[in-house]
## 1
Amino acid sequence: MLELRPDCERCGADLPPDSADARICSFECTFCAACVDGPLDRVCPNCGGELQPRPTRESHLLERFPASTDRKGPQ
């Protein structure tokens, strides 16, 4: 199950579970669309994988399977 991490690892932008701007690689490294389409050029800086739009989770399922609150971006 996806963690649905709450922020961009590069710039710290908030990425709520329903965000259309969240991008992930196969290891769930998480970045915002602005970083991915700009400086990262759609390549994960951690693993070299391709960054794709992150799926969303229906709100009724978020209650049972909540998104992560562990922030990975700059503090």
## 2
Amino acid sequence: MAKFKYSMQNILEIKMKLETQAKNEFSIANRKYQTEKDRLDELVLKRVGYETRLKESLCGELNISNINNLKKDINSIKSAIRTQLSNVKKAEDELEIKRYALNELMKERKTHEKLREKKFDEFQKEERDSESKEIDQLVSFTYNN
């Protein structure tokens, strides 16, 4: 029985290490997702700034080359935003995969903990039953002699 309990302990330790590793991977994926979102926010702010400058250029003295440059800048920023949206989506998908993996590992660890507790309870019950049986035999032997 002790050998089984020892291997259950090893399994539980392995599950805990895997869970820790999954937590680290989830944390890395979460940081990457936040970084990609921040980059997207910066690009959106940049686009708003270019659009504001374009509106200002259209209100005052018209400088066609400046207006064309701002339009090109806006178009390139829009392209960068589309690319960044794709990056954010990929990072979000990866984050969800890591979240799911972490949740599964946590469930497995908890299941093994419960199994270990159950086996330990069974072991204690067997020990109590064995002790009770020995006491009964001892009492019976003493009484009969």
## 3
Amino acid sequence: MTADLRAEVTTAVARVRDRSPLVHGATGSVTRALVADGLLAAGARPMLTESVAEAPTLVTVADALLINLGSLSTDGMAGFVPTARAAHERGIPWVLDPTAIGLAPVRTPIAHDLCALGPTVVRGNASEILTLSGGGRGGRGADSTATPDDAATAARHLADGRCIVAVSGERDLITDGERTIRVTGGSAMLTRVSGTGCLLGGLTAALLAVAAGGTEAKGVTPFACAVAATALLTVAADRVGAMGPGSFRVALLDALDAVSAAEVGDGVGLAWE
């Protein structure tokens, strides 16, 4: 079973580079540059806008969508739900990253409204997943006060065959409600560079694009693509090694460009639960 999943991960990463999917990222201004550069380094193409005047129209030509509630703007508050609805209606795979929900009085109800529109993957930290499932009050801003272990039951309940839930942490957890796998490895420096979680959401959207219909997607499931996104970032971070946060940010982009699909599939730590 693990060997089959590794093969899918390898195939998915290779297909992103072959196909260069267009990822529409409605994401915060603070981390937008890292998301765009990381997508390009991984082989995808970014299109980043969140305005209600444009985003619901532009998403119709995208291969996948990321909605990230990071540095929430007035444009984002107005544009997120119509953009997600447009993607959902056209069968475009999309990722919800409910950044910093909990006590926040605006983004929290928006996250629940978005979740009702059928995201393909919900990706967040443990506190965010607990909140979205109704079992928590959020973390401290964008920081989690819980672990993936704490959120395991909530993640399975939230997924329950409706979507895939990816919980980031020291040992990432990915579940579709029936299957649950842990992804191990990566660098602690990922938590010291702003936007690496947002980047993971973008990579998840890019990987989902190669599982979205057509003969080209045969044999690559959305579940495997969610695992592949975490694996890609994990292996790239491992490749960088030890350095300061400024240097790490640049080196991570270089590693995303340089790491091979086979290196990702073979090098990531996977453990079924």
## 4
Amino acid sequence: MPAKGKHRRPKSQRFTRSIAVAGTGGAALALPLMGATGAHAATSASTPSTVSAASGKVATAATASASASGKAATSASAAAGKTAAKTYSVRAGDSLSKIADEQSVSGGWKKLYSDNREAVGKDPALIHPGLKLTIGKKAATSSGTTKSSGEASKSSKSSKASDSSAKTAAEPTAKADDTAASSSSSGYTLPVEGATIGTGYKVAGSMWSSGYHTGVDFVVPTGTTIKSVAAGTVVSAGWGGAYGNQVVIQHADGQYSQYAHLSSLSVSAGQTVTEGQQLGLSGATGNVTGPHLHFEIRTTPDYGSDVDPVAYLRSHGVTVG
């Protein structure tokens, strides 16, 4: 029995080792499968990362597109803000030049006049209190689309053609008026057309503080256009006490012209005017008995330095009736 037991033990041990080897061999045989499985698992694990990276690129592209759209919208909004127009109501004493300066109109009074030609009319100096003017560019179309360069060029040519037509239409009237033609060539003109003189210069009377009339009165109804007799610079424009609304202009020869009792003013102090430019409209403001234009020529801008206004105009080639 003991011998058999010894004999069986070694076999048993060899069998165990065989099983162990077999087991080891099985493990070895299983290793490729495990490696393949690991490789497959690694491949599967890498797939979400690839998809995630692609998704990130798509998201980045979408963000960039949204950013570009936002910038485009901001640019469009800014452009719309720049082209937005506003309405200005003309006040007493205003002129296109003054309004253009105060409202910072790009292009000055000429641009302002061009934008409001229909409202102002053919004479850019003829504006009156309460007139509505558009400041800034008008919208090209109701949809807010911007004109192409070709359309803008066409619009510019149309505007020039309109100006040319207006000028051509105005020329026959100017040529038909011999007095206007002769006065323009001399650089001087009458302060008001077609008016007769009422009270003359130096007519005595207690109603005047100096004891006599310091100018001449042109009898005209309220609302008649009053013009500068020559080019010059406005030294004052506003209320003048007994003179009512008045304008005083200094001319190149050092003399000053005064226009009084106006119902409204079209110029302001410091403004440069040309011969025949509108200064305002006649009226009956101040110390008057009826509407007329009180006109003076002075050696200084102040009261009491008057000279004969009729003689002054005639010395510059202007016929005074």
